[in-house]
Amino acid sequence: MPDAPRPCDPHLDIVGFKYPLPNLAQSLRNQRKVKVVAIGSSSTAGEGNIVPYASRLEMALRGRFHGRMIDVLNRGVGGQEAMDELSRFDPDVIEEAPALVIWQVGTNAVFRLGQYSFDDVAVAIAAGLDRIRNLPMDVVLMDLQYTTAIVGPDKIKAAEDMVSLISTAAENAKVNVFRRFALMRRWVEDNIPIAELVDPTDPDKLHMSDWAANCVTQALDGAIKGAPQPIA
Q1: pLDDT tens-digit readout, 87-105
Q2: Which of these, 78, 59, 79, 56, lies nearest to 68 by C-alpha position?
Q3: With a threshold of 0.90, does the pTM exceed it?
Q4: Using only C-alpha atoms, what is the Rg of the chain?
Q5: Rounded percentage of the chain residues whose pLDDT exceeds 70
Q6: Which residues fall within 8 angstroms of residue 202, CB to CB, at 6 or more apart?
Q7: How far is 231 from 220, CA to CA, in rounded Å?
Q8: 82 CA to centre of own chain
Q9: Which residue ranges form the domains of the chain, and what is each CATH number?
Q10: DSSP string, 129-151
Q11: How many H-runs (helices) and E-runs (strands) does the chain carry?
Q12: Which residues pair with residue 178 across a beta bridge?
């Protein structure tokens, strides 16, 4: 018999959201059609044979909200960073008018260290958050994955700096962060080998394994479910 899959601990104490998601809550309450946009790079788009989190989140939300037509639109483009993604905001985010935007940022600035200025990434994130600040859509920033290519000895300091930069940008804009980096690091601290978090077919050791992508999605769905209730 094959071994049972490793159980998933989503550590909602780590990834739980600080702020409500009022637009998503209202849309789920009052509308049959609900739209979410996931914008980012390859860990949003999907790589290899691993189903990306956007597709998994769509199924999780549909499972929790029967009778709703919930679509999670995958607007990931491999290799991009916040500045590139910001240039796509009009067609890929604003014109779609989603109730929730999940913006995954920061990975390529660390993976391709030196190609992107961290200051430019910070400016782009702030500009993107400002552009949609007054629109009827909630925003969640998703930070880096904790995989071999990101946390090697030559990258770990930069990775931690980027995680801090994303957290600061979110706090300044009063939006939530999905703390993927801290979640995956906690799994490693709990004695899950980092090799199990990495797609074994990825020569760069950058992208998440099937198990990690599934458990990250469970944690994200749990954070959405557990977000503070909007103030009436």
Answers
A1: 999 999 999 999 999 999 9
A2: 59
A3: yes
A4: 17
A5: 98
A6: 47, 48
A7: 22
A8: 13
A9: 12-225 (3.40.50.1110)
A10: HHHTTTSS-EEEEE-----HHHH
A11: 12, 5
A12: 142
